[in-house]
């Protein structure tokens, strides 16, 4: 590449060329990128099931336009369980949507630096457009599944790319990104519900939503203010970073408190090294990331075990909402909690992610016992718990990436941000696998 790229040595503060107006544009740009990146992921499955119903496919679940991403609901399909169950766990749909994302996050950090950011964004936009078109015009189950896969690829590639992109801007853009991804859950569900309930067909609704990938293009290419030397269309085979202020951050390495000062000095020297990370260096960074990735994965494992394995079983017949309406509100209120906590980085920062994972596991155990023993007397208590669940999950997400960005050396930061994004997807995938036998057990009672 012709020019060296300079990562902001102190991402908490604006660079010399970044004024207040530029910082506001960048925060807003990352907010829109977060919203657009997760939007197709949020609406795709409920839309796919609506389309399948129009096709007359033999689908035992009832489509629910207001359902948030990854969730399918309906009646008990004629089963004779003491629980009002779907014949197939919602975890089946969860796995169909998360596995492509997981595969991308596991493999892409090792080669994605060879693809320019501009090209990656165009791939995300193209696959998002393909997801809307394929599902809206699908005539078979496999075509609708292919559309869901396109949405998953777009979301997975976009998340690791945009998280890596934040290292070129002031660190407050992480708050914009997190808030935007949280807003996608609420906005996607509400917009899809509003359009379909106003009389539009699911197909027409999806075609209208093609404006979302267009908004991603506008946000990235026209709203963000890039550093002058940013390699928009060039791969980053070589890079040069400033090391002057690197001692203010500790490299992302394992070690005791006594070694902290030595690691700082070592990190300052490492930050002066130019060139891409070697495989050994990448593995060393991954080892240091475990203290962030493992708690994040545990949070999302417990979170999606609740959402996919338990919430559909928490039905209160005497409540003034139907089973479908109760489930819809569970998911909507959960997304509201996620939106609030992912937008909280400017107000509060939590470094002990392990504490959030512990509290989320307590939630999962409490709701599991509530399903088994039918302890909770009313859906109102579940509403409170799922809001709290969303608050914990959203807080774990934004604070994990904030402290990875803060505590990683300049040279390792871009790779670390992309690699750490696998934590939540891995936790979600494992929860989907475990939710299958749990759902089967309860529905066989």
From TrEMBL:
<feature type="transmembrane region" description="Helical">
    <location>
        <begin position="379"/>
        <end position="403"/>
    </location>
</feature>
<feature type="transmembrane region" description="Helical">
    <location>
        <begin position="30"/>
        <end position="48"/>
    </location>
</feature>
<dbReference type="GO" id="GO:0045121">
    <property type="term" value="C:membrane raft"/>
</dbReference>
<dbReference type="GO" id="GO:0005769">
    <property type="term" value="C:early endosome"/>
</dbReference>
<dbReference type="GO" id="GO:0051453">
    <property type="term" value="P:regulation of intracellular pH"/>
</dbReference>
<dbReference type="GO" id="GO:0007040">
    <property type="term" value="P:lysosome organization"/>
</dbReference>
<dbReference type="GO" id="GO:0006865">
    <property type="term" value="P:amino acid transport"/>
</dbReference>
<dbReference type="InterPro" id="IPR003492">
    <property type="entry name" value="Battenin_disease_Cln3"/>
</dbReference>
<keyword id="KW-1133">Transmembrane helix</keyword>
<feature type="transmembrane region" description="Helical">
    <location>
        <begin position="141"/>
        <end position="162"/>
    </location>
</feature>
<dbReference type="GO" id="GO:0061024">
    <property type="term" value="P:membrane organization"/>
</dbReference>
<dbReference type="Pfam" id="PF02487">
    <property type="entry name" value="CLN3"/>
</dbReference>
<keyword id="KW-0458">Lysosome</keyword>
<feature type="transmembrane region" description="Helical">
    <location>
        <begin position="174"/>
        <end position="194"/>
    </location>
</feature>
<comment type="similarity">
    <text>Belongs to the battenin family.</text>
</comment>
<dbReference type="GO" id="GO:0043066">
    <property type="term" value="P:negative regulation of apoptotic process"/>
</dbReference>
<keyword id="KW-0967">Endosome</keyword>
<keyword id="KW-0449">Lipoprotein</keyword>
<dbReference type="InterPro" id="IPR036259">
    <property type="entry name" value="MFS_trans_sf"/>
</dbReference>
<feature type="region of interest" description="Disordered">
    <location>
        <begin position="243"/>
        <end position="271"/>
    </location>
</feature>
<feature type="transmembrane region" description="Helical">
    <location>
        <begin position="353"/>
        <end position="373"/>
    </location>
</feature>
<feature type="transmembrane region" description="Helical">
    <location>
        <begin position="206"/>
        <end position="226"/>
    </location>
</feature>
<dbReference type="InterPro" id="IPR018460">
    <property type="entry name" value="Battenin_disease_Cln3_subgr"/>
</dbReference>
<dbReference type="GO" id="GO:0051246">
    <property type="term" value="P:regulation of protein metabolic process"/>
</dbReference>
<feature type="compositionally biased region" description="Basic and acidic residues">
    <location>
        <begin position="243"/>
        <end position="252"/>
    </location>
</feature>
<dbReference type="GO" id="GO:0051649">
    <property type="term" value="P:establishment of localization in cell"/>
</dbReference>
<dbReference type="GO" id="GO:0043005">
    <property type="term" value="C:neuron projection"/>
</dbReference>
<feature type="transmembrane region" description="Helical">
    <location>
        <begin position="415"/>
        <end position="436"/>
    </location>
</feature>
<dbReference type="GO" id="GO:0005802">
    <property type="term" value="C:trans-Golgi network"/>
</dbReference>
<keyword id="KW-0472">Membrane</keyword>
<keyword id="KW-0325">Glycoprotein</keyword>
<dbReference type="GO" id="GO:0005765">
    <property type="term" value="C:lysosomal membrane"/>
</dbReference>
<dbReference type="GO" id="GO:0005770">
    <property type="term" value="C:late endosome"/>
</dbReference>
<keyword id="KW-0488">Methylation</keyword>
<feature type="transmembrane region" description="Helical">
    <location>
        <begin position="117"/>
        <end position="135"/>
    </location>
</feature>
<keyword id="KW-0813">Transport</keyword>
<feature type="region of interest" description="Disordered">
    <location>
        <begin position="1"/>
        <end position="20"/>
    </location>
</feature>
<protein>
    <recommendedName>
        <fullName>Battenin</fullName>
    </recommendedName>
</protein>
<keyword id="KW-0812">Transmembrane</keyword>
<keyword id="KW-0636">Prenylation</keyword>
<dbReference type="GO" id="GO:0006897">
    <property type="term" value="P:endocytosis"/>
</dbReference>
<keyword id="KW-0597">Phosphoprotein</keyword>
């Amino acid at each position: 590449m012709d020019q060296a790229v300079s990562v902001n040595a102190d991402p908490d503060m604006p660079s010399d060329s970044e004024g207040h107006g530029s910082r506001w544009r960048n925060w807003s740009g990352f907010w829109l990128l977060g919203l657009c990146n997760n939007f197709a992921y949020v609406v795709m499955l409920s839309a796919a099931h609506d389309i399948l119903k129009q096709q007359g496919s033999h689908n035992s679940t009832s489509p629910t336009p207001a359902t948030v991403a990854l969730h399918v609901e309906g009646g008990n399909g004629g089963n004779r369980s003491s629980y009002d169950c779907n014949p197939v766990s919602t975890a089946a749909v969860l796995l169909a949507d998360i596995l492509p994302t997981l595969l991308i996050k596991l493999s892409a950090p090792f080669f994605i630096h060879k693809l320019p950011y501009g090209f990656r964004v165009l791939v995300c936009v193209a696959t998002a457009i393909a997801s809307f078109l394929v599902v809206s015009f699908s005539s078979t189950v496999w075509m609708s599944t292919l559309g869901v896969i396109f949405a998953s690829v777009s979301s997975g590639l976009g998340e690791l790319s945009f998280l890596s992109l934040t290292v070129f801007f002031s660190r407050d853009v992480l708050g914009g990104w997190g808030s935007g991804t949280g807003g996608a859950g609420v906005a996607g569900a509400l917009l899809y519900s509003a359009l379909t309930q106003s009389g539009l067909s699911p197909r027409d609704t999806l075609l209208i939503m093609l404006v979302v990938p267009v908004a991603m293009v506008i946000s990235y290419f026209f709203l963000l203010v890039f550093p002058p030397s940013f390699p928009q269309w060039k791969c980053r085979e070589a890079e040069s970073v400033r090391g002057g202020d690197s001692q203010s951050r500790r490299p992302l390495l394992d070690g005791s408190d006594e070694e902290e000062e030595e690691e700082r000095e070592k990190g300052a020297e490492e930050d002066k090294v130019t060139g891409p990370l070697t495989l050994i260096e990448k593995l060393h960074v991954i080892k240091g990331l475990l203290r962030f990735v493992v708690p994040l994965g545990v949070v999302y494992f417990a979170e999606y075990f609740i959402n996919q394995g338990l919430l559909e079983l928490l039905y209160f017949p005497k409540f003034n909402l139907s089973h479908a309406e109760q489930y819809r509100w569970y998911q909507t209120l959960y997304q509201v909690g996620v939106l609030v906590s992912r937008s909280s980085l400017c107000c509060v920062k939590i470094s002990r992610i392990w504490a959030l994972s512990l509290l989320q596991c307590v939630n999962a155990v409490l709701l599991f016992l509530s399903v088994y023993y039918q302890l909770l007397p009313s859906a109102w208590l579940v509403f409170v718990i799922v809001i709290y669940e969303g608050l914990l999950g959203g807080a774990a997400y934004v604070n994990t990436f904030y402290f990875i960005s803060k505590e990683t050396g300049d040279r390792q930061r871009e790779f670390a941000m992309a690699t750490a994004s696998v934590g939540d997807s891995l936790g979600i995938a494992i929860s989907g696998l475990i939710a299958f036998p749990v759902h089967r057990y309860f529905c066989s009672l």
